[in-house]
Design a protein that fits this description.
By secondary structure, the protein is an alpha+beta fold. It has one domain (3-145): START domain (Alpha-D-Glucose-1,6-Bisphosphate, Chain A, domain 4, 2-Layer Sandwich), CATH 3.30.530.20. It contains three helices and seven strands. The protein has a seven-stranded antiparallel sheet with strand order 1-7-6-5-4-3-2, covered by helices on one side. It comes from Pseudomonas laurylsulfativorans.
Length: 147
């Protein structure tokens, strides 16, 4: 199962500030580099990420291909949270968000373990590059939003 890990220093922010920003549902579409649409009766303005919470959204891959996801928040701790896909376009998807103090700010890390439908050939041809691009853009967005 491929693992993608990316860490960025977010200057002048504490780990608590960065994690709190990530736990507010209203920030999810701001961080995500492609269009996402909540499904069901989710009000992002009143959504706080909490362990056990499930939600559904439509991710518009390349901003044109609709892909429905159902995710559950597996864990929320003082320095991390983990979401996992229950239903969606991948065979498996587990995303750990971590924060820790760094020199001059907070180190924010995304660690994603995934498995594509179609296995290693599909990962190599399409998914690995797509994941690197999406998560690099997420980190750029985080830096911009938290400056």
């Amino acid at each position: 199962m491929p693992i993608l890990e990316l860490t960025t220093l977010i200057p002048d922010r504490t780990p608590e500030q960065v994690l709190d920003f990530c736990l507010e549902g209203v920030n999810f579409p701001k961080i995500f580099p492609e269009r996402v649409t909540p499904l069901g009766d989710i009000d992002l303005n009143n959504l706080r990420i909490e362990a056990g919470r499930q939600f559904r959204f439509r991710h518009w891959m390349f901003n044109v291909i609709p892909s429905n996801w159902t995710v559950v928040i597996r864990e929320v701790g003082e320095r991390h949270f983990i979401d996992e896909m229950l239903n969606g376009p991948m065979r498996a998807f587990r995303h750990e968000h971590r924060v820790e103090a760094g020199e001059g700010g907070t180190l924010y890390t995304d660690r994603v373990m995934y498995s594509a439908i179609g296995g290693a050939p599909m990962e190599w041809l399409l998914v690995d590059g797509y994941m690197r691009r999406i998560f690099a853009a997420r980190h750029r967005n985080m830096l911009h939003l938290l400056k």
